[in-house]
Amino acid sequence: MSHERDKSENGYGLSSGHSGLDGMSVPPSRRSKDEAWDLLLKNIEKQQTVTPKLVPFKRTKMLVIAMAASVAITLLVAGYLALTGAVRVDAPLAQSIKVSLPDSSSIYLNQGSWIQYSHLYGWLNRNLTLEGEAYFMVVKGRGKFVVSDPRGQKVEATGTEFSVLTRNNLFTVKCFEGSVKLKVSGMESISLSKGQGIERKGNQWVSVGAGLKQIAKPVWVTKEFYFIEQSLQQVFEEISDYYKISIKAEGFNPESRLFTGTVPANTLTEVLDIISLSTGLTYSISSDSTVCTFR
How far apart, in whole angstroms, are the C-alpha atoms of residue 130 and residue 107? Predict the structure, then answer.
């Protein structure tokens, strides 16, 4: 009987025929059979349990992505502003300057004047704004060359040379090469060809250079006065405007006397001396150097 008991329980209290446990053994221990059985089951459950793997949230990676997006947006905004922004050029007082445009056109900008154009000039259009006085030397390019003033008056050209004077209610356009077209709100466009000009006086438009063989280029561009059969009154007015001095005539009518010649725009005294020698007149200048009188 004892031999059969030992054989059936293998000496450890476990039946050799127990399903799923054949070949397994429990080491000698002071635990009871129940305690040993519980411990074995716990070990089996522990081995079969799969612990889920946690993936930590990487804040550094997200921060890098956010910074990259911010930089990209900043570059896009900066690029947009750079392309749609404007370039402004001002000529200082008592000094005329030359400005080269992106399409190789040139502008002579008289003192106290300014121009403004887009960074996209030459790509989408050739538009600019002028306040003051400028002489334009325009090359043929993409589309028309358009000069506007802050009051909405426009001059259109393709490849030509012309001057524009716009200050407050004063507006003058003169064409020296090719042709230009003047557009003013409320009136039909006016075309001007070489040697023609137009000036607004109040609400009236008056032709400039009518009867002249050639319109003289601005003295601040050429650095010389160029007169062709012009009255002494016109000569005095141009010299007065350039040197900011008042010139008067005494004892004769300056409208009845014509003058032709080229006078270098050097000092005022040199210019007055040339006019005096050429006309046989004498002149004097006031003590405060504001008035010159020819006799």
Answer: 11
According to DSSP, residue 256 is labeled G
CB-neighbour burial class of residue 136 (10 A; exposed 0-12, middle 13-18, buried 19+)? buried
Task: List pLDDT tens digits, range 164-196.
Answer: 999 888 899 999 999 999 988 778 888 998 888
Angle among Cα 82, 85, 86 to the nearest 5 degrees reads: 125
Q: What are the two backbone dihedrals, phi and then psi, of residue 2, each rounded to the nearest 5 degrees?
A: -65, -35
Distance of CA 44 to the CA centre of its chain: 78
- For the stretch 35-60, pLDDT in tens is 766 766 666 665 555 555 655 656 67
Q: What share of the chain is helix, strand, coil (3-state, %, to 5)?
A: 25, 35, 40
Angle between helices 232-243 and 268-279 (to 10 degrees): 170
Architecture of domain 86-208: Sandwich (2.60)
**DSSP sequence for 117-173:** EETTBTTTBEEEEEEEEEEEEPPP-SS-EEEE-TTS-EEEESS-EEEEEEETTEEEE
What CATH class has 223-294? alpha beta
